[in-house]
Amino acid sequence: MKHRTKIYSRLLAPIFVSSLVPLGAMAMITLDPAEARAEVSSATCEIHAVLAMKSGDGSIPADLDFLSAQLRDDQFAAFKSFRLLDSKSLKLKLGQTDGASMATGHNLKLSLLGAEASKLQLHAVLASGDKVLVDTDYKIESSGILLIGGVRHPDGKVFFAIRCRGG
Amino acid sequence: MTPVSENDSLQAYFDDELGAEERAALEATLAGDPEARLSLEELALLRQAIVGSLEAEAAAVPEARFEQIWEQVDRTLDRDARLQQAAEVNVSIWSRMAAFFRPLWVPTLGVAAATAAIALYVGGGATQSAENTPTRVASKDEPPAEAAQAPEKETAPALADEGMIAAKVADTQPANSEAEIQRIEFGGKTGRIDRIESTQGITTVIWISEDDETTDSERSL
After folding, report:
1. Residue A72 touches partner B, C-beta closer than 8 Å
2. Which of A85, A17, A20, A78 is nearest to A47 (CA)?
3. Are B106 and A22 a contacting pair at CB < 8 A?
4. Could you tell me which residues come within 8 angstroms of residue A164 by beta carbon, excluding any fewer than 6 positions away?
5. Reduced to 3 states, what is the DSSP secondary structure of residue A127?
6. Verdict on whether the full-model pTM lies above 0.80
7. Are A122 and A143 in contact (CB under 8 A)?
8. CB distance A17–B111 less than 8 Å?
């Protein structure tokens, strides 16, 4: 009996370790590294100005592939062609604001208000000169796209695609 | 002739070892031989004394003591057998080392696996981190040299401007990327929030209209 207990106690530690290690390894492998990171304190944002025109062959240029699914939606059915006018990149730190002056003459200011898990909380202000067109606070998944559209342009309407990635 | 009292046949009779004829003959002799009967009584007394003494001694030893003694005997025998077996087998130093480290194999392998997993994870994270850094994206202050050679330049001449992104965005949108609008204020009279469900997930669209008056449309979703 005593001998049997000794065998059990000898086997217990290896069994325990061998069961914990694969679990830990699997957890680390399956976890998204972005989520595994303790906290997001900065974000890289890309702002794209897209011109939607009512004339054209309906094709979407290669540089707008990342928006092709959205631009083919019924909401853009009135437009026949699209063109990428400008793209800017901003690096945001938590609590700080940065702005991008777009080639369309619009100014877009972005602030990183916070981040939790894989979501970013942002503040965006789109202005045309001194006139604010929209001022919004929103939460979105990292790498998610927010479209702000309908801004007048001599050739159609301008849409702004904002994509921010935490970290 | 030897008297019955000195004869071995009396002892054999006492031990009940005689045959029927010898027994009958001896009993006939005993009937007429008082000395032989006395010898027989002495033998009975002697037996009684010896048996009584042994029983008394056995009664003085507790039963548990017997078990202890037998266990000790068993252990001694086992130990001797093992020692003899060990002496017969020529155990190499490598075998002894292997036996010594045998309980450590599984934990060691486990720690090695965990270390490898962490190394892979850290390496993957570093790679992803490197991918996340916009090396292909020009910063506002430092436009990359390859920006001038970017194919997008032909389709979008404005891309040649300072601070523009030189390469198109390659990564995909997360499946559930609908924006949660917490507050919104439109500069124009009208504005609305819509959503597009596409193969790239859900995308939130803020439609604005440019009018002169300012309209507040506070929304908490």
Report:
1. yes
2. A85
3. no
4. A43, A44, A45, A46, A92, A110, A112, A120, A122, A140, A142, A143, A144
5. strand
6. no
7. no
8. yes
